[in-house]
Amino acid sequence: MAAPVDIMSEKSEKCEFVSIMPDSPPTSLLTMPEDVMRKIMEEIEYVDIQRLRKTCFTLRNIIDTIKPKPGLDHIDISGSADNLSVSFYGFQKWALYPRGPKVWIEYRKTNITWHRSDEDREKTMDNENFLDVFSRDFGSFLSFKPIIGRFSITSEQNGLKTIRKSLESSGKTPLKVRFLSISNATCQEDVLDILPFICPKSLEILRINCFRDDPTDTNFVEELTRGKFEIWDISKIMELEHWKKVENWDMRRIKVQVGSQNIEHFRDAKFCMKQLTVEDMIRVKENFLHSTYSKYLLLFFQRLPDKDVLNERFGQPHRLQNHTYYSPFPTQSWFFRRPDNFVICIDLTENCFVFDLKHIEYVPEEVRMNFL
Length: 372
Description:
Elements: H1 34-42, H2 46-53, H3 57-66, E1 74-79, E2 83-89, E3 103-108, E4 111-115, E5 121-124, H4 130-144, E6 147-155, H5 160-169, E7 176-183, H6 188-192, E8 205-208, H7 217-225, H8 241-245, E9 248-256, E10 268-275, H9 278-289, E11 296-303, H10 310-314, E12 318-320, E13 331-337, E14 342-348, E15 352-359, E16 369-371
Parallel strand pairs: 1-6, 6-7, 7-8, 8-9, 9-10, 10-11, 13-16
Antiparallel strand pairs: 1-2, 2-3, 3-4, 4-5, 11-15, 12-13, 13-14, 14-15
Helix pairs in contact: 4-5
């Protein structure tokens, strides 16, 4: 009896493979179904998508149709009159390309530098304005990212006007942004250079700072008590639709003078004022009393002239030591319980008031409670 033939053996000479599949063109990237292509695009980095887009017209059209959404929802821009720097990255995705997804490019009058984890790449500018090149690249990125999660803008040597021009030239304004941060602003006009190019309907959180590097609250209070900071006029900012639409507004590092009635519509607000009065505090308390949602208000102040009558209007405080993170001074606290088991918590330190509306389960059991 003849031995069976082992078809996996290299010694077999009679092995034949017969295809049972009908003749069909070989599968390629260009013939992939749209849902498969979309899945592929979700797995590659933004830089690689751009490279793939430049290989042929077919792939460019496919990518422009699918509009893959890279996981880069954070944008940082800083600039002066002579240069702009932009970074695209995602949450906890800070490693530079190709080690990670982060893209960091600097645009100058004479050259462009692409910072990479392996080796920086540099290109000389020939007969092109660096603002035009930036605007074109920025607009290309926004084509794949219709809503920006976090947008941070930092001015260097009055650079906000340069940034404004680049945003305007991108052709993508008003930008849809959820969290906007403007740092190193010097006056109301700096903010007005940017806000008109941001969609107020999508904006949830706005932070405006007159510092480049944010100081600690303790250092800020020390400078505030010495009267170092000038008062900003924000009357034109208050006329914008953003003032009405944004729920979370943070200007704690800029001294302004606005009435408490002008900030009571915010859900979460942080401001610094030259002077507060006890009547302001009573008005805020009444606003929190009738609020139908949780609220938070932090107010730094330089002066509280009628502080002596505070206990007469609010009652005796509950004294806590080092209760708050924003001041090294002892804290006086009041707790007013509403009928719905929510509590208005009020903290006062040397130069700061905090109002916080929260459920009773988050209030220490040992505090002295006032019933409303």
